[in-house]
Amino acid sequence: MSKLGTLGARLYRGEVGYDFVGKRKIWYGISILITITAIVGLAVRGLTMGIEFEGGAVFTTPKTSISAQQAEKDAQAASGHDAIAQKLGDGTIRITIGGVDTGKSDQIKTQLAKDLKVDADTINADLVGPSWGQTIANKAWTGLIIFMVLVVIYLAIAFEWRMAVAALIALIHDLTITVGIYALVGFEVTPGTVIGLLTILGYSLYDTVVVFDGLKEGQKGITKQTRLTYSEMANKSLNGTLVRSINTTVVALLPVAGLLFIGGGVLGAGMLNDISLSLFVGLAAGAYSSIFIATPLVADLKETMPEMKALKKRVLAKRAAAAAKGETEEQQDAAPLDEDDDSETAGAVVGQRRQPSRNNRGKRR
Q1: pLDDT higher at 215 or 91
Q2: Which pTM does this prediction carry?
Q3: Are residues 282 and 177 both part of a single domain?
């Protein structure tokens, strides 16, 4: 841990750095692979929508020794529909059955009481109509679209359109991965899931804006120097905020991991899985995208600008000239920076040569 702390301090002070932007093709490839896997999982398995979106019934039994697997089989036999049963921490069972109307729910409730050997009056039944669920789904999609539009408008005004585009791609990246993992795992999509998705998108955006703020400061007067290209400046700014991003992500993931693995997994509070899985996956994906996706994308978009192409050409020309003279990188950094010279050889001069001063003997002649 002490070595990790020392490394973090050196990253923060700029003593060391990692070329995230320079290796962006690797990160792009990893993201494309993960995204394709998520899309395939979504297409093959699909999302398991909760009754809040599809309509149906939720039956909660009293404490029983019957397993969730057996209760699920009994519910499917009684209803003729797919059912999902979860054993809760207090020994009760929560059974969700989609596509059930009021008349049939009473019949299912009576049959479940016989199969589970409990009194029918002790089974609690909650019904959700399909029209209400469709309304909730439409409002969720509307809220997500409005959120995306407002994000793009804000970033375009506060920063520039290139950063807005990069942030939007990163948000879509995070959303796709989270939804794909939901499909692969098979967890129900509930209103809690939607809340979790909107939360992690906001968190991802926050992390990205922190990095973009450093880029905005670093690009001031960048065309008036010849030491760094835009990509190198972006990488330097990213390294400066790396420790902060890692710390905030780890601190945010710890309580969410407690909800997911302890609350939902060990204690059996299945309803916690709805929001905790989306938060856990989304927070991790958001931290990844802000570091490995958003900033490299901005660098790629900025490097297409004529002034940035000219800057890169001047920087490479200066380095080639210095290499021909046998200068090391440290010697180049020690050279005075002429910010007002935009010529091809700006900043290539190491320093002015001083003429030797005349000694006192010349005055005595």
Answers
A1: 215
A2: 0.71
A3: yes
